[in-house]
């Protein structure tokens, strides 16, 4: 779904730029697009068939999470490109598998939210 912006510039910045934005008086005028990455406190292994991840942040109740199939493909993409945006990932996955980007975006969003609830990935 294309968006049209009239008389407006959209600048994508990372979260480290926010304090600079505040100092310049432009805070709130910038669109921050989060990128996804694997958390630093996650131990994981990949045996080419599946990924098994363990959140060390949840050490009291941690349990391994097996990620298979397309989920493992997504995990590897995030591991290989920390900070990748959902839209970029959706576009690449849709093109590679000849699927509708809207459907892929929705499925990816659901997967990433599930992995976030398991304290395995973060949007930054």
Automatic annotation (TrEMBL):
Highest taxon of the lineage: Bacteria
Query: Pfam families from the xrefs?
Result: PqqD
Q: Which InterPro entries match?
A: PQQD (IPR008792)
The name under which this protein is listed is PqqD family peptide modification chaperone
Native species of this protein? Answer: Microbacterium allomyrinae
